[in-house]
Each structure stands twice: as structure tokens, then as C-alpha cells.
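Objective 1b: paired records.
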Amino acid sequence: MKICVFDTETTSLDKPFCYNVGYVVIDTEDWSTLCARSYVVEQVWHNLPLFQSAYYAEKRPQYVAAMRARTTIMDKFGYICRQMSKDFRNFEVEIAFAFNSSFDEKVFNFNCDWYKCNNPFDTVPIKDIRGFVHHFIVNDEYKKYCDDNSYYTESGNYSTTAETVFRFLFNDDFVEAHTALNDAEIEAQILKQCVVYGANLKEEYKAFRSVEREEEKTLHIKTAEQVDYYFDYRKIRINKGKTEITLR
């Protein structure tokens, strides 16, 4: 079947004005790329204070170079959505995929509402590549790779970003570009590898909030009678005022 893998770059998380859209249309029979497009959103590009509020605003010269080379096109968000819808129809795209798709879906919902344009994903379902990753790539070998390289989240769990997963699968030295088309292309490779490992693109695989990492720690409790207790534990959770401890 034909699928789309897409990515967005935005100015913020709360009001995600989109300044870069990239996507590839792929034939899953041989994983050939039928279409690849990269856009800079005109309305945000020309609003310099808004663009400069983006986390990756320093990449502006890269977009200038890409537009001069005609590998990226600048256009209004509404036109970009119309072109996506046209590509979806022409290539008969059945499903769209994105890494952490809930955010990218939010981006299109927000911007389509803001600019009063039709959402190309109104008729094309979106699936989260992270769900495929969590079910088909994250295993003991992956966790050991993260442990060996200290690839953890801020909360100390295992990292499952596209960059970390791509490093594990293909290239230890890979650095994510954080431009929409480049990211969509590497995320398509990750999705393909999930299929190699047995994933069915038509199935729904739930993405976990995080992949927990167990750490050995010691819990120290001092009673009112000044008695000290020490417990070695692997997990501790605090939920609704209750503390749950898993002892070794």
C-alpha cells in the first residue's frame, strides 16, 4: 500500500505555529519513495519575532540555503495542506505515520484552524511510529545499548527518540537534523525496520509514555524512636498519595 511519513517543526509546544513541513510518500511493496516534499511556511517565516521563538531558530540559514537550492519551497500553510491532500489522492495514501504523532496531529489541527484551511488528515488516519518502536525494537539488546551509551530521558528512563533508535539500528554517530523532511526520511527507515521485525502497518501499536529503567537504590527510613531502616529497592512510585516500593 501507499503510506505517508511526515514531520513538522514548530515555534513552541503550547501554540505550535508550524514553520517547516516535510513528508515522503512510500510504496511499501519495495519501500520506494514516490514523492518527497519540504516546505517553509511563509506566514511564520516572515514573522521574524515568531520564528526566532522556535527552539531550532538557529537553523534559519539552512532553510535559506535549501530554498536557494530549490530543495525546499516556501508557501502559505493553506497551499501546503492542499498539496498534501492532492498527493494523498493521487498516490492513494491509506495511512500516515509520524514519530510522536499526537504532537504532529496537534500541529495540523492548530494551524488548520488558525489559517482556516482544510486539514489533509481529515480523511487519512495517523499512526504513531513510537508504538511500533516500543513493540518491535525496544528489547533487552536495545536497553543494554542505551545503558552502554547513557541514552536516558531527563527522568532517568530509556530514551526512545528517533535519534536514539536510528543510532541503535543503523549508525552510532547519527545526529538528527531537526528539519522536517530529513527527520521524516529517517523515521520512514525506522518504520521499515519495524516491518522487517514483524510489524503490520495496519495494526495499532500503543506507544508507552516512557520505557522504565530499573535502578538499584537504597531507601532510608528513620522512625520516631530513632531507629534506622535501610531497604534496597529497584522501583518506587508515588501515586495519589500512596507510595509503592518494589524491594529486591
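Objective 1b, second protein:
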Amino acid sequence: MTAPTSVADRDVYTRYLERTRWFGGKGRPFEVASVRRIGELPTAREGSPVVVIELVEVAYGDGPGGSEVYQVPMALYTDPETRLDHAFIGWWEDPDHGWVHAYDALHDREAMACWLAAFDRAAREPGGNLNDASGLRFHRLPGHDLDMETHSTLFSGEQSNSSVAFGDDSLMKVFRKITPGVNPDISVHEVLTKAGGEHIASLYGWLDWVDGDPDSAADEGTGTTMQLAMLQQFLRTASDGWDLALASARNLFAEGDLHAYEAGGDFAAESERLGTALREVHAVLAEHFPVTTLDRDEVAALADGTDARLDEALEIVPELAAHADTLRATYARLRELVGVSVQQIHGDLHLGQTLRTSLGWKIVDFEGEPAKPLAERLKPDSPWRDVAGMLRSFDYVPHVVERQFAEDHPEGVEQRAYRAGEWAHRNRNHFLTAYAGGEPTAEQRALLDAYVADKAVYETVYETRNRPTWVGIPLEAVARIGAA
């Protein structure tokens, strides 16, 4: 083990952030600008560690004003815990607790029991939602008793946040990058849960922190609130929508020269059910969140935004230049629209944000596009943006599988390309028809076409930066827009 480190030594946090999955600043020059301990959880039982929550501010050196704040919950032990070596953060003399060994708390079942106990207390004790004068608040919705005998399991697959399951009972998502204000993942789930929404995982509670006087913030709306975590229903037996769709496309390619509707793994019925589920979710959101109509200037601004994003993308993906005129013509049709309605939507919808359960489809993760500022994610938008995201996801599925097959079966490329296009068209059509309740109107089609094109342009940039071998998938989609 390395020599003990003072809590004031920010290099400890730098080394820790660099090896996590969820830190968004990898590859950028940064330094830890500040570390602030915002609270301490009550112990759950004898032998529980000291559990603290710290906010780590990161300042980037590759642009003016670039900074982010990350949440770091820690379990502090007096002696080393070898079972947690993989989650070790540092060793220092803590001003409140003396010499401690600090570990990422989400890896520690003893520490996670403190979270579960605090959520339980919030539902059962008067004033239980307020941890202490620090401003930590645990909130609970009625209707579900937590299983206090179970233990926690940290999910390993997530990147931007961290999720912990408490047995088969509940799931806690800990937001790693923290922004002041209301997190739509909580606010939307709260509304849909209270409305009895069938197509979500029910919200059980959440944790936030008020920076300032917590009593004043509660009574007068003062202070700054940061939402730290949410507790919700654990859909243990659910299947990931993206994985199910991939399996369908693999089945099609494996069965030889069959049409998509002839294959045993035909996905069209599921696509149709998913379209109906999204329509119902949008309807509930429209009942409980404001719905407004954009005027001509606001619609023009919407079109301007798509043009601006295309200008930025052309600098990164030169291949888009061949299709720029057609893309701009698609965006220009937005300016002809009158009465575009906007409301609360998902904001980052694709098959990976869906789960198939025995009771039907569930839509998850209403946080919006993580790369966008919170203020932008909170803005109302057209429901057709969510539809466009799903249509692009349906297009990705067979073309991803097509590339995987090509590695082992170089023959049959043309036949698989035809079947990939057929699978995508069939599932897009079934989803869209179910969502729209028939054929979209001319106005709806113009709006949808612009959103689909905007999404495909975004994907070319993302793939160029992250998965260059996949950039052909959205580029081919852009070319099809030009050929339509």
C-alpha cells in the first residue's frame, strides 16, 4: 500500500477519477479544483463504516470555463478492508474521523445498507427525510415497503452513472455528474409513478442535497438543490430491448434467404407494442406537464439549430458534404410548419432505453441526453424527437449484426445487406404506425424527417469520435435521405 495521503492532497481524487468508468473527462487535461464533503449518512447497524458524500469539482485545461462536479460517496474504515481493495481511493488523516482508509462506497454492502436504512427511515419516521443540518434529504413515495433483509449488488455495465440493486426488490441509481436543479429522471418518474404509468419502473424515492439553509430551502424555495440518487422498482426479469432486437436480426441472417416476416425471430409485433407504449407515455406526460405551441420564430429557431449542428458536423465528418444540400432542404421544411406542439419527452430514446417484461414494455432513463446541459434537457420538445430516436435505433440493429456476420461469413454480403434494410424498414414501419395510430400527416412527416436527419448527423459525429468502423451506418442513412 502507498504512503498515507493527506485529505488535502487532490491527487488522490485525480488518480481515482482516471480509473473509473463514469468519469466523463478521460482524455482531457484536468485538475481537481475543490473537494467538498456535503454530508454523512447515519449508521445502519453496529459495525457500519462511516459513509460520507463528497462533491469533487474538476477543472479542464482545454477550454475556458470548463468544469464539472462529480459525486463521490465513500466508506471510511479505520483498518484496511482487503475485500474492497479494488475500490480503494486513499489513506489519510481525516479531520473528523482520524486516520481512515477510504473506499468507493457503492462497492461496499455495509455502506449500501446505510442508504437503504435511510430511505426506509424517510418513509417511517417523522422528519426522517432530513439526515442532519448538512442538507441531505431522503424522500419516499408511498406504496412500497423496502426489503431490509437483502444485500446490495453493484452493476458493472453502466458508464455515466452507477446503479446498485438491493436484492430483487429495488434499484438505486447514483448520479455521478451533478448539476444544480431538478433531474428529469426523478421528476418525470415521480409524475408517471403517481399517475400509475404502466410503462416505467416505479419510483420509490430519491436523495438530494440543499446547498444553504435546508429549512429555508424547504419553506421558502431558497438554496440550491442537487439531486444525488433515485430509488426505483427493480425489473429483475426484464430483457434489454436492444439485445432482443439484435437477437431477432441474428436469427434472420442465420436462417438463410428468408424475408424478415418469414423468420422465426420476427420482431415486428414487439416493435408495434413498443410504439403503443411510447404513445401512452407521451399522453400521460402531456396530461401532467405543460404543453405549448411554438410560434413561427420558435419553429425557425428549431430549424436554425439543425443547420448549426450540421455546420459543426461538417468540420468533423467531411463525408457529409455530399449530402449537405439535401439535409438543409429537409431542415428547411420545418420553417413551413405551423403549430408545432412541444412537451416533456424522454429526450434520449433508443432501444437501449427500453426493457421487455412479462407485462409489456418499460421505458427507462428519462435523464435526457447526458452530453447536454441540464437547462437544455429540461426544455420541452416535440414527441417526434423520441420517435426519431427509436427509428434510428431500429436502423442500427440489423446493420450492426450485418457487420458482425461479415467477419465470419464474407460471402453473402449483398443478400445480408438487402435483408438488413428489409428488417429495419419492417420494424420502423410497425413501430411508427402503432405510435401514430396510422399514417403520419404531412406536417408530422416533415417534423419527423428533420429529427431523423438531425439524429443521423449527430451519429456520424459520435461514431467518428468513438467507433470509426461504425460511421458507415449513419452515413448510409444520410445517403438514403438524399435518395428519398
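The chain is about 40% helix and 20% strand. The first strand starts at residue 30 and ends at 40.
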